From TrEMBL:
Provenance organism: Porticoccus litoralis
Alphabetized GO MF terms: catalytic activity
Stretches of the chain forming a coiled coil according to its record: none
Location of the HIT domain: 6-114
Protein name: Histidine triad nucleotide-binding protein
UniProt cross-references to CDD domains, sorted A to Z: PKCI_related
Active site: 100
UniProt cross-references to Pfam families, sorted A to Z: HIT (PF01230)
InterPro entries reported in the protein's UniProt record: Histidine_triad_CS (IPR019808), Histidine_triad_HIT (IPR001310), HIT-like (IPR011146), HIT-like_sf (IPR036265)
Motif Histidine triad motif per record, residues: 98-102
């Protein structure tokens, strides 16, 4: 049996986290090492390792994550200016292999950088 991911352990309350939102498909937590004053992680309950590992059967989950980002950003008060980042693969900086969307807000973003 494959080992539980860090985020599955957080979802299962085996590891503590600051949970700001949850529903039947996903959970949102504060990042433990924030890269912006508001740095949240939106995580599907299903442990899809990377974005490229999602399959057509995950279509509803992926759509749900994108729609829920808006609700979570509104709840956090950053809906006027935030970024959503998905790191796919170690080469792109992914360190936890359980799909997650970073929401970064309350930060001055430069116009010429991603
Ligand atoms: P990645 O680099 O995989 O895109 O993002 C993983 C994120 O998870 C990082 O921003 C990192 O700070 C965060 N993280 C790692 N371990 C923990 C933890 O135990 N709790 C929380 N809340 N965030 C974590």
């Amino acid at each position: 049996m494959s080992e539980e991911t860090l985020f599955t352990r957080i979802i299962n309350r085996e590891i503590p986290a600051d949970i700001v939102y949850e529903d039947e498909h996903c959970i949102a937590i504060r990042d433990i090492a924030p890269k912006a004053p508001t740095h949240l992680l939106v995580i599907p309950r299903k442990p899809i390792p990377r974005l490229v590992d999602a399959s057509p059967e995950d279509k509803a989950i992926l759509g749900h994550l994108m729609l829920t980002v808006g609700d979570i950003a509104r709840q956090a008060g950053v809906e006027e200016a935030f970024r959503v980042v998905v790191n796919n693969g170690a080469g792109a900086g992914q360190t936890v292999f359980h799909l997650h969307l970073h929401i970064l807000g309350n930060k001055k973003f430069s116009e010429d950088s991603l």
